[in-house]
Design goal:
This protein is an alpha/beta fold. Among the domains are: 1-195, Rossmann fold, CATH 3.40.50.980; 366-429, Luciferase, domain 3, CATH 2.30.38; 434-533, GMP Synthetase, Chain A, domain 3, CATH 3.30.300. Helices cover 30% and strands 24% of the residues. The protein has 16 helices and 26 strands. A 13-stranded mixed sheet has the order 2-1-11-10-12-13-14-15-16-21-20-18-17, with helices on both faces.
Length: 541
């Protein structure tokens, strides 16, 4: 047995089949019932010609079938690909082509955009490879995709797949992060298991695959962990898998939009010990809901945050709303996995200080040597790290370099110094990426959408502080002669070209400033936008 995700999962099933391992909304699955349906789906995919290395796009809200589909793909060494359900057709077509998808599994709500992209392929698609899940909507009527339940019907629930699995099987997570267009981060199964899925025990990872059976029989961490992030994001997938692989129960919020009252009701109903949030966008409404309608949550002992930093004011509100609970921060990314954790209580340290493991270092980016004496460097990690970016050797070489001693690193893009006590103090990002409510937005993509408007001569897009979302998109627009544009007109123009969360929330008129080498002056842009909008520039120092 190897550290292959499906093999580890099946060992858990056989060791404790009746344990309820997954709750999404009102639906529940034991390990056995979840495994049986994943087996049926795996058999269907094999019959449709899907096998090792083939990539299947998943386009759903949080639901049981998303987890079933991930497990089914891993069982036959295929690769589930996370498709952002907010993407418009152009964005989805880009990821589709980049990932070279062999099939899709989507909710009926998204059938029209899936069908549109299929039509762009220019050849007759095998609809047995494109499954649609009934979500109670009529939006997807008229498509020719195969019904998900019909695909499972009649298929065996055993595991006779005839596949040789390997710890080298691929796990791919697409990120819109700091690298321009969305990129697929390629991990080996063994590496993602230890780097981001808890390693079978979050504090003391297992050392042999067979040890996972202990988590089924006598789990060391039998916790109910509530995941609120979408399963299309790494944060949602990883919290879910940490809970399941550690022998506990993944409690996944199934709402189509974030509702703090529903989240807290779910935590109360399931007796969750932890709930994972993403930045102020989730934490503020959760604090507000507890202030309006306090709940008894005796099992809850920790609120974790990751994907976007909490503001000091929000942290104070959470601490007051949940007295006695641990407020912890997670630091990591799709490229690095889970790098560090921090239970930050001091006002001077909130959200910026993290404890890290021995494989994490702060490096000089030129020499790849560790920095010393409180000097700023870039956070990097070795050991269980990705193979690189799918279809991008140049960016892979830049982000995943090898030092003179032959050690391979992933450069996080985050600058930090090492404090005397060994913790990292984060200083900021090495890019102009905008983190809005945990979603990463690349300014160039939004700029390209804006430039298509006939009233716009030039534009720089930057992030500005936002009370709820952490950062929001501001467009500094240089108008064409004798032309004008309103924020509403700009937003209408951008919708349909980029996902809704990327559409500018602020419009600032002014002449675009370039650096002395002719590139957009992003430092000026952020300062100018903040000044014009009457906002404090957090990077002024």
């Amino acid at each position: 047995m190897e550290f292959q995700l499906a093999s580890l999962w099946e060992a858990l099933v056989d060791g404790g089949p009746d344990h309820c391992c997954l709750v999404v909304g009102d639906e529940r699955r034991t390990r056995r019932s979840l495994d049986d349906r994943a087996n049926q789906l795996a058999h269907h995919l094999l019959a449709a010609g899907i096998g090792r290395g083939d990539r299947i796009g998943l386009c759903t809200y949080n639901r049981i079938e998303h987890v079933e589909a991930m497990l089914a793909c891993w069982k036959i060494s295929a690769v589930p690909i996370n498709l952002n359900y907010r993407y418009v057709a152009d964005e989805l077509a880009y990821v589709w082509a980049d990932a070279d998808l062999s099939g899709t599994i989507a909710e009926a709500t998204f059938a029209p955009v899936i069908t549109e992209v299929l039509g762009r392929l220019g050849h007759e698609a095998d609809m047995a490879r494109h499954l649609v899940i009934n979500d109670g909507s009529n939006i997807g009527a008229g498509h020719s995709m195969t019904k998900y339940e019909d695909a499972l019907a009649g298929q065996l629930s055993d595991r006779g797949f005839g596949q040789v699995r390997s710890a080298d099987d691929l796990y791919v997570i697409y990120t819109g992060g700091t690298t321009g267009k969305p990129k697929g981060v390629m991990w080996r199964h063994e590496d993602i298991f230890f780097s981001a899925m808890g390693g079978g025990h979050y504090f003391e990872p297992i050392t042999s695959p067979e040890q996972i059976i202990d988590n089924a029989v006598d789990p060391a961490m039998p916790m109910n962990m509530t995941a609120t992030a979408p399963l299309m994001h790494a944060a949602g997938q990883w919290v879910t898998m940490i809970a399941m692989f550690s022998g506990g129960t993944a409690v996944v919020y199934g709402g189509r939009s974030f509702d703090a009252a529903d989240v807290l009701d779910l935590v109360a109903r399931e007796g969750s010990q932890t709930v994972a949030l993403v930045g102020d966008a989730m934490a503020i409404p959760v604090a507000e809901e507890m202030e309006r309608n306090p709940r008894e949550l005796p099992a809850l002992f920790a609120i974790s945050n990751g994907g976007a930093m909490l503001s000091p004011a929000t942290r104070e509100r959470l601490a007051a709303a949940f007295p006695g609970k641990i407020l912890s921060d997670g630091f990591g990314s799709s490229e690095t996995g889970a790098v560090g954790t921090g239970a930050n209580n001091s006002p001077d340290e909130e959200g910026s200080h993290f404890s890290v493991g021995p494989k994490t270092a702060v490096l000089d980016v030129e020499t790849l040597e560790p920095v010393v004496g409180g000097v700023a460097g870039m956070v990097a990690r070795s050991g269980h790290i990705p193979l690189g970016y799918l279809n991008d050797e140049a960016k892979s070489a830049e982000v995943f370099p090898t030092d003179a001693a032959g050690c391979r690193w992933v450069l996080s893009g985050d600058w930090a110094i090492i404090e005397p006590d060994g913790r990292l103090r984060l200083l900021g990002r090495d890019s102009n990426s905008i983190n809005s409510g945990g979603d990463k937005i690349h300014p160039e993509e939004v700029e390209a959408a804006c430039r298509n408007h006939e009233a716009i001569d030039d534009v720089i897009v930057t992030g500005v502080p936002d009370e709820r979302w952490g950062s929001s998109v501001a467009a500094i627009v240089q108008l064409a002669e004798h032309r004008s544009i309103s924020l509403e007109e700009l937003q209408d123009h951008c919708r349909g070209r980029v996902a809704g969360y990327k559409v500018p929330r602020h419009l600032v008129l002014g002449d675009v400033k370039l650096t002395n080498v002719g590139k957009p002056d992003t430092v000026w842009a952020r300062a100018f936008a903040c000044a014009e909008l009457g906002l404090e520039n957090p990077r002024a120092s």
